[in-house]
Amino acid sequence: MASAIQELLALAKAQKLALAKKNLPVAGIAIPVPATVPVANTIAIPATVPATVPATVPIPEANPDIHTGIDRYGKLIEWNAEQWQFIQTVLSGKSCILIGAAGTGKTTTMQGAISQLLLTKYFPPMQDHEHKHLPTGTPGIIGVSFTKTAVKNLRRAMPNELKDNCINIHQLLEYQPVFYEVIDADGTPRKTMKFEPSRNQFNKLSSAIKIIIIDESSMVAVDLVYKIYCALPDPSKVAFIYLGDIQQLPPIFGSAILGFKMLSLTTVELTQVYRQALESPIIRLLHRILSGVPIPASEYPAWEYPEKLKIHAWKKSISADNALRTIALFFKNAYDAGKYTPEDDMILIPFNKACGTNELNRHIANHIARKRGYVTYEIVAGYERLYFSVGEKVWYSKEDAEIVNIRINQGYSGAWPQPEHKYLDYWGTVQLPEGEVTEHHILNESEKDIDELLAGINLDDEERVREASHIVTIKILATGQELEVKTAAGLNEMILSYALTVHKSQGSEWKKVFLILHSSHNTMLQRELLYTGCSRAREELYVICEPDSFTKGVIGQRIKGHDLKAKAEFFKGKLERGEDELVAKLLEADER
Asked: What is the distance between the alpha carbons of residues 406 and 24, in angstroms, rounded to a whole number?
């Protein structure tokens, strides 16, 4: 069907061009159309009715940079030269890369490539592979990414028969907890747990997988892609398609696969920004940032678009401490007024400390806990005292999660925390409303679970020190999987996530984003950070900054280079120990 359509389009184009060169009218030249083939307006034309072009209609000159195709619904689509190059590369079966800034049609181009693949090629269905997260009976085209939000976006772009084939990389590799007993340097055995892929060289993925699309590949580490290669029956028979945006922040730690692959695979960069995209005030702001042309404070009002975009500048510079208190009060008031919804919105700040996420998270969490009547727990984890409530929004092991339960850890025998309380604040003080009294409750042995108490008897002193005072059960939002975290190290890794750093936000998006910028963040105020933070907003962006902080960010540039090769070198990041060997193996696979 697809080849027939392409032949018809080619025939029609050739006839028109031939007549145009001879200055002949084209009336009466019929384009043969099979009765069942839908044309651009999706109406089937009977074979007995000739499709003609009136002589009075001028024939436009052929544009070699515009290519047409028909999507799987019979609609005519025009592609620019870069989009067409990518589609043809995908159809050739080769691994390749597609990069482009917001508004350049990356998603649409990917949709076009996948539609053409399904129209022109046969992909045997995946059968009897017993995968926990991939269905059986669907074509062997898989879409993966690192975060749940990127997977959700990829799923929206896929045709119906491939939507369930979009999962995160850890789901593809079927990561699961594995428990070990290790021997310390002094010969003492202890228990430990790691998440490891159950799909590997000994338990392969389906041989029907022929294409793997990796979205937001600037976030995906080299070792994770290598694990995918190891889990494939024959990586040389699988085409990898990497999608990314090199205008975003490069990785801080480790190395991203995108930089290395840009140096070895066909890389197509989309640069044309479409008018429809520029109708979005957020997209317009993003491209102003990328232009490097500063936005002075006097222009901020002109950028305001109700319920879409606002750049709110303080009238004067203030200290980091005063800025934090002001911001905290702003969000408390916004929450009470219904203008800040933690479940849908995100606050982004460059730093963790000072005027950063750590203290702001405490202020917001404490306010929400008191408003919702949560009971707050003090948890002793090593040298730290942490404060969490059931229902809390947290970030754990690079995943969004929610606390679903907190209970006493009977294996713990260190300094005891103060009891949980509905008026315990996130700095460890019980703040009772005026006129209310409470009894100071001390946990006694009769309240401890007897089975867990007996289990705790078998723990040695060192193991008890490693244990935290409570066991916190969290639900990973991307997978629905529930985990129990009870070690001091594990609890210290868990952070409140009402506010995140811009780096942690990569690959995610939220309905509304608040981006906070202050002079104390000057060392990180660069174009890529602004672009990354602003592009996390799906519907509304609210920037709070000092008068000149936004301008400084637009002027500064972190990713150096004027061509793709130079940018790729910068974007690779720093190789961790042993990753140079993995990179060599992955590049060798590209050459096969």
From this structure: 82
Q: Which long-range contacts (CB under 8 A, 24 or more apart) does 583-589 make?
A: 583/222, 583/255, 583/260, 585/226, 585/229, 586/222, 586/225, 586/226, 586/229, 586/257, 586/260, 586/261, 587/260, 587/264, 589/229, 589/235, 589/236
DSSP 256: B
Sheet holding 393-396, edge to edge: 482-487, 467-476, 399-408, 393-396, 495-496
Cβ–Cβ < 8 Å for 485, 396: yes
Q: What is the pLDDT of residues 229-241, one digit of tens each?
A: 999 999 999 999 9
Distance (Å, whole) CA 271 – CA 266? 16
> Using an 8 Å Cβ cutoff, are 243 and 211 in contact?
no
241 neighbors 90 (Cβ within 8 angstroms):
yes
Write the pLDDT tens digit of every residue in 25-82.
333 333 333 333 333 333 332 333 333 333 333 433 445 556 776 655 667 778 999 9
Three-class secondary structure of residue 384 per DSSP? strand
Q: Looking at this protein, which amino acid is placed at residue 54?
A: P
* DSSP character at residue 334: H
- The answer, as to whether pTM is greater than 0.70, is yes
